[in-house]
Amino acid sequence: MVFIKKFFLIFLLLGCTSGSLACDFSNVVFDASFSAARLSECTQRGDNSFLLTIKPENHPINDSPWYAFKVSAKDERKIRIAIEFVNGKHRYLPKISRDGLRWAAIPHRLKNKRLTFSLKVDQKPIWVAGQEIITNQHYQSWLKQLSQNSNYTMSVLGNSTENRPIYQLESLSPSNEWVVITGRMHPPEITGALALFPFTQTLLLDQSVGEKFRKRFNVLIVPNLNPDGVEHGNWRHNAKGVDLNRDWNKFKQQETKLVHQKLQNIVANGGKIVFAMDFHSTSKDIFYTMPTDYGIQPPMLVEDWLNQLEAEMPDFKVIIKPGNNPSKGVFKQYIADTYGVQAITYEMGDNTDRKKIISIAKNAAQLFMKKLLDTPKEKFYQPKNKK
Ligand SMILES: [Zn+2]
């Protein structure tokens, strides 16, 4: 826990890089000139009443309006904020923070697509956002910290559309088996990120089963695949206005291309991708899987693993949703179709308790490692006979 807090502190000190909107009214200022901010327009409607408008990067777009701004006032006062979303309906509940580190939900009303709430403001800015803010800098600091362990190498996989570095971390073993973990294709999906951190840390830092796991399996982690979207506070897309998790059959986007080339290189050098996992958020905790009869290997690995997770966590209902849609361009389907092995989309609910997200992730990671270690190498190699 101290580990996590330290990173948040680093992120806090280094944040605030992008320049964009600031609305300076006579007594109240709204500021969106920091990383991951999104605020499109502000209107003053009364002394202490403001209407804020949030627009997506482009549309049509998934209904995931992200918003993040700071607000301060020349003197202490109570203000009323209404937020309207253009081209999308409300998804994220408003949260506030005084330090960008600790966040609290605030009472709000939602009526006719308008979100309203009241805030006490003063000279010290208050962050307001749809979820906790996790910037590109945070990922960089997190990976840097992990790579202080000499067993792990942090490097730049390549650059995004707008030339931001996309970082990867690799844990190498003498074997040719690879586990791949990706995240943050969709910038506002913070609970997915909050699961990726403890899941990955368990894989990399666990001293018992983790040591055996890392001896046998190589691990590739690309935790932040859409740094442009994260920087701009996008609702969903990359800098070209494209949903990256619909591009894994076309590879028209720089970000998906980079991962595809990396995996192709691994295979060209004798490596075998054995499993992949992609972290997201949605309305509830759910694991999107490939069907057990899809012909990928080993057929029951995911079912067995997740059923065991439910058995070990009686207060957590595991929902497994198998699906197969080759034309959609989703990452898990790409892994299944290209490498013949299992892959999942690991989704945490937008409003799932944050401590629970961590405990699910740690348990899931422990059981995942055991499950993979119990799987003989040849079980990943059965020929694919069905599509
Ligand atoms: Zn998503």
From TrEMBL:
Keywords: Signal. Its cofactor is Zn(2+). Residues 1-22 form the signal peptide. GO terms for biological process: proteolysis. InterPro entries: Cytosolic_carboxypeptidase, Pepdidase_M14_N, Peptidase_M14. GO terms for molecular function: metallocarboxypeptidase activity; zinc ion binding. Pfam families: Pepdidase_M14_N, Peptidase_M14. Residues 132-372 form the Peptidase M14 domain. SMART domains: Zn_pept (SM00631). The active site is at E347. It comes from the Bacteria. PROSITE patterns: PEPTIDASE_M14, PROKAR_LIPOPROTEIN. The keyword Signal applies. Belongs to the peptidase M14 family. This is DUF2817 domain-containing protein. It comes from Aliikangiella coralliicola.
